[in-house]
UniProtKB/TrEMBL annotation:
Location of the Alpha/beta hydrolase fold-3 domain: 74-296
Species of origin: Tripterygium wilfordii
Cited InterPro entries: AB_hydrolase_3, AB_hydrolase_fold, Carboxylest/Gibb_receptor
Domain of life: Eukaryota
Protein name from the UniProt record: Alpha/beta hydrolase fold-3 domain-containing protein
Family to which the UniProt record says this protein belongs: Belongs to the 'GDXG' lipolytic enzyme family.
One MF term in the entry's GO annotations: hydrolase activity
SUPFAM superfamilies per the UniProt record, alphabetical: alpha/beta-Hydrolases (SSF53474)
């Protein structure tokens, strides 16, 4: 970085974003784009559609080339700390193609608006609006997307996401209970891959890994300027004022955590808290040894990726979680 560039930077959110003094956002990663279409490796088709015309929010839909029966529908929320990546990011696109092929599902990937241009709770609002769009296809209520009308079994609906997207899935799973969508959408399960939860008081490896903890602290303060800091209920679901986990609107939850991930201990804490919350469903957790955060996206050649995808498929199609550690 040259001296002129340094002088322009008001905030450096390593290694993803620089906020310049004039308010310009300079995105350093996550801007690559892969178009939707036919994936020759997996035989999966995808297309982009605008689902919320008022805001321009889009979704990328995925389906197997050959659909002889109606398929489970997974509504997927990508990660990226709420401030980076999109539905068209190449590694996300490739990963979701493989998930769809493995699980034989219809998948809708939501392109919610990103912070800091759109600070939280915008991502949650866009994601909720996306669920309302999905619900518009129930019982012929006027939803106009033919892939959902023709290929989706809306009685087998799942929420899923990685990192920040797993966080979104959690919050939507709570919000839907007792809402106007509760009678329309039956959430069969929620899949959280390396969920992004945090807190003001460090736990586990957060207390010793000062470098990565400071990075995550910096990320959160960028997307959610809040006087509650890391104990805002959006990022810490266990603080006073947070909705009870007992209100989660599904019968099953599958959590994936990664051994080397700075977020690992929060995932385990969520698992323990959910079990003790009074929620009447079943939660399973799977820890993948020797890997880090979202390894299945960043390192798709890793031999443990296939195991994760097979476990996800089994949870959706057979109601079974994979073994506890892979």
């Amino acid at each position: 970085m040259d001296q002129q560039t340094k002088a322009e930077v008001a905030r450096d959110v390593f290694p993803f974003i620089q906020v310049l003094k004039d308010g310009t956002i300079r995105r350093l990663v996550g801007t690559e784009v892969t178009p939707a279409g036919f994936d020759t490796e997996t035989g999966v088709l995808s297309k982009d559609v605008v689902i919320i015309r008022k805001t321009g929010v889009k979704a990328r839909l995925y389906r197997p080339t050959s659909c002889t029966n109606k398929l489970p529908l997974v509504v997927y929320f990508h990660g990226g700390g709420f401030f980076t990546s999109t539905i068209a990011e190449p590694k996300y696109h490739d990963s979701l193609n493989k998930i769809v092929a493995e699980a034989n599902i219809l998948l809708v990937s939501i392109d919610y608006r990103l912070a800091p241009e759109n600070p939280l709770p915008v991502a949650y609002e866009d994601s909720w609006a996306a669920l309302q769009w999905v619900a518009s296809h129930v019982d012929g209520e006027g939803g106009g997307e033919n892939w959902i009308n023709d290929y989706a079994d809306l009685g087998k609906l799942f929420l899923a996401g990685d990192s920040a997207g797993a966080n979104i899935s959690h919050h939507l799973g709570l919000k839907i209970k007792g809402s106007d969508l509760d009678a329309k959408l039956k959430i069969r399960g929620i899949i959280m891959i390396h969920p992004y939860f945090w807190g003001q008081v460090p736990i586990g490896k957060e207390a010793t890994d000062h470098f990565r903890k400071s990075m995550v602290d910096n990320w959160w303060s960028l997307v959610c300027p809040s006087e509650k800091e890391n104990d805002d209920p959006l990022i810490n679901p266990f603080v006073d004022g947070s909705p009870s986990l007992a209100g989660l609107a599904c019968d099953r939850v599958l959590l994936f955590v990664a051994e080397n991930d700075i977020l690992r201990d929060r995932g385990w804490l969520y698992y323990e808290k959910l079990k003790k919350s009074g929620w009447e469903g079943k939660v399973e957790i799977v820890e993948t040894e020797g890997v880090d955060h979202v390894f299945h996206i960043l390192d798709p050649s890793c031999e443990k990726v296939e195991t994760l995808f097979k476990g996800l498929s089994s949870f959706i199609n057979h109601g079974k979680a994979p073994v506890a550690v892979v």
